[in-house]
Amino acid sequence: MTFLHDYIYYIGAFGLIFIGLFIMLVKHNLIKVIIGLSILETGVNLFLIAVGYISKGTAPIFSNSAVESERMVDPVPQALVLTAIVIGVAVLALALSLAIRLYHHYGVLDLRKIKEQRW
Amino acid sequence: MVSPVLLIVVPLGLAFAIPLFGFISKRIVKYIPIAAFAFNLAVALLLIPEVLKHPIVVRIGGFPPPFGINLVAGPVGVLFSVLIAVAGLLVAIYALTYIKEGSKEKYHMLYLLLLTGATGVVLTGDIFNLFVFFEILCISSYALVAYIGDRAGIESAIKYLIQGAVGSSFLLIGIGLLYGLFGTLNMADLAQHIESASPISVFVPMVLIITGLGIEAAIFPLNAWLPDAHSSAPSSISAILSGIAIEVGLYAVVRVIFTIFGVSSIFMFLVFLGILTLLIGEMCAFSQKNIKRMLAYSSIGQIGLIVFAMAMATSLAVTGGLFQLVSHTLGKSLLFLAVGYMIYRSGSMEISSLEGMGKRMPLTSLAFTIGAFSIVGLPPFVGFPSKFLIVQAALAKEAVLFTGLIGLVLLGTVIEGAYFFRVVQALYFKKGNGDSERNEAPVTGLIPMFIFVTLIIVIGIYPKLLTDVLNSAASEFLNRIDYIRSVIG
């Protein structure tokens, strides 16, 4: 059980990543594919946080001498995740607005019926 | 002394200032990209002599590497910046009259952001910063592919977006794993530490990062989005996507393999991937009836050739690969620009509807012909010295395998010649149905085309103009120790 206890965040993160990828590969509805993309991105963000996390850690404030440096959580992955969340929001917003336009053109969101572009 | 930061800051600032300029006057908006890239071109050209002596490392915020984010303007970065500025400037001139419909402010803003992202990718020395600039490039190109808003454009934009977003997620997971292993994001610092780690633990992030970047670079199994996106975007955007966006993706792949990981065992795999990409791209291009799809598949073929050359990893081959990259940017941008107005006049993308264009649009047809000959690699044009260098490099390997592979490359070139000459024949030697009145592209369309033509011919006749930059760029890729030393000090 210690394995599960030590790596629970990684297991959760990669679980979300694989669930997202699975949805994107299997589902035919464009909205569901976009939901899968969102889950995938959430999993990636959770993974980045898990990389820098220490169990029972606190914020890295060096002026507060009560906290030893071993207990401090690495702040860099959190800064990365902030950036990644913003990028994810932009991608999702663009994807959803394109889905609306696609629906105007075709009247369906089923990807099996939308394939005018071929090799 | 000019600072390389200006190459990123000025276009980025102007991009976000475009809506403000739009309040003052709707007519000045379209001149802003021209101003931005004229400035960038001047700065990048001024940087060249300095950079050839010693790469410039800019510490943003004054933190010494590996702590802050740093920009590395080495020969590679400046070569790409010049290329991006040249293509950006000329295509911006072309767009003055070409972009007629839709919201022009949005077009020009996204256009500036796309090329700012590209410049950022080639200049940055921090792998997470590379991801951020890459996302700027990708998101603006998704939006620009859908700019016209017709069925084909929206469909290919959503296809491109979904594949690109999965690729970016892979890239981010790879970066996260690298950070978890080494606790740093600086590319030089990563390169320094990578040898101390076990090969297996480095292998997973490497595969994830190469897959993520390979989607944008359209290396063979990952290129399904490219023909759709490049053929349904407006022609000015196709020129930038084909000429700049995939090249920047390829730069990122090469940078990651050569500088960060420095693994030689993957090169043979990439050689075969390059050959496969080349042959599949060329054969698909041969069977196309739609001219823009044909050019898009031809881009895949050229990317395969560049991957092949880079993966041979000798100094001659990398120089050849970079040269081929320059000649592809010039040639393919020119072809898309010329085709843009031909499609506009004939109203159809079918190759058969271009018959007789040689009489209707003689100058545009001439520009197309020169671009096509350069991509195929005929002598007075820039495509010839670059392909010649790659062949020479493969033969210098003195291995039976590479001699055989270069035979396949030449087979690809023959197929390339076949489909390009078919179009040129349709332009000049077939009678078009319909009006044969002379109806040339407007002057703002012809000026950038003929600047491209001049560059293609001048560099084709004097390839020595680029030799210094290309040689030192190739040695920047191959000597990772020098790169690490120049950044960390």
Task: Describe the fold and architecture.
- The complex is a heterodimer of chains A (119) and B (489).
- With 119 residues, chain A is an all-alpha fold.
- Chain A has one domain (2-58, 70-106): Helix Hairpins, CATH 1.10.287.3510.
- In chain A, 67% of the residues lie in helices and 0% in strands.
- Chain A is built from 3 helices and no strands.
- The longest helix of chain A has 32 residues, at 75-106.
- With 489 residues, chain B is mainly α.
- Chain B has one domain (5-488).
- Chain B has a two-stranded antiparallel ribbon.
- The longest helix of chain B has 32 residues, at 151-182.
- Chain B is globular and about 70 Å long.
- The two termini of chain B are 21 Å apart.
- The model of chain B has no long low-confidence stretch (mean pLDDT 90).
- At the A-B interface, helix 1, helix 2 and helix 3 of A face helix 5, helix 6 and helix 9 of B.
Rg calculated over all Cα atoms of chain B: 21 Å
The largest chain-to-chain contact, stated as pair and per-chain residue counts, equals:
A-B, 34 and 35 residues
Annotation, overall tally of beta strands of chain A: 0
Bin the helical content of chain B.
Answer: over 70%
- In terms of structural class, how would the helical and strand content of chain B be classed? mainly alpha
Q: Label the structural class of chain A.
A: mainly alpha
Strands of chain B, count: 2
Number of domains of chain A: 1
Shape of chain A: elongated
Give the oligomeric state: heterodimer
CATH class of chain A: Mainly Alpha
Runs of chain A in which pLDDT lies below 50 for 5 or more consecutive residues are none
Beta percentage of chain A is under 5%
Amount of beta strand of chain B: under 5%
Largest sheet report of chain B: 2 strands, antiparallel
At CATH level 2, the architecture of chain A is: Orthogonal Bundle
Radius of gyration of chain A: 20 Å
Q: Count the domains of chain B.
A: 1
Residue runs with pLDDT of under 50 for 5 or more positions of chain B: none
Mean pLDDT of chain A: 88
Q: What's the end-to-end separation of chain A, in Å?
A: 50 Å
